[in-house]
Design brief:
Elements (H helix, E strand, L loop, with lengths): L14 E5 L2 E21 L10 E16 L4 H7 L3 E6 L2 E6 L7 H4 L1 E7 L11 E8 L14 E7 L9 E2 L6
Length: 172
């Protein structure tokens, strides 16, 4: 555990991504976290259309975007409920089937982003999402240059309402 409470500059170095205990590897271009909060305007007759306050009405969405520097058939299978990896050794294939009616909550898993500038044992700045799923299948580009695999994860609240933690999730 690190004694650091402030860290400057690690975000630019990227993160490693672990999803459902599968190490998806390092990113290229880092990762981004987007949080969209829903607010309800509090209006009074005295102020007309000018809100005098706002009430929170939950988080509309919490999304994490990563671009994996390397990807594999096993990574794709871990990320998507529609994908099934068949075979073993060098004789493998990934089948992608139409999926209708799957409740994504049942397919969600733990997502962990760990800054590459920190030792694996230092979880001071880990982002841990107890329930996340990949929002949509990625574009897989076949070009001459490096083609990272961009994934967008959507976080869901757990049974206690927790959406994510920053730091060691074991801390109390």
């Amino acid at each position: 555990m690190s004694s650091q409470t402030v860290k400057n500059g690690f975000a630019g170095l990227g993160v490693t991504v672990t999803y459902k205990t599968v190490n998806l590897g390092p990113t290229t271009g880092g990762a981004s976290l987007q949080i969209e909060r829903e607010l309800v305007e509090i209006l009074t007759d005295e102020r007309g259309k000018t809100p005098v306050d706002y009430l929170t009405n939950g988080l509309k969405k919490v999304d994490v975007t990563v671009a994996l520097a390397r990807w594999s058939l096993a990574n794709l299978e871990a990320a998507f409920p529609e994908f099934a990896l068949l075979g073993s050794g060098a004789d493998k294939k990934l089948e992608v089937k139409a999926d209708v009616g799957t409740q994504m909550e049942t397919k969600s898993g733990v997502l962990v982003l760990h800054p590459v500038s920190l030792p694996v044992s230092d979880r001071t700045f880990d982002l841990t999402f107890p329930r996340a799923f990949v929002l949509s299948p990625p574009e897989v580009a076949f070009r001459g240059e490096q083609t990272p695999l961009e994934l967008v994860f959507r976080a869901l609240p757990d049974a206690n309402g927790l959406i994510f933690t920053i730091g060691d999730p074991a801390a109390s």
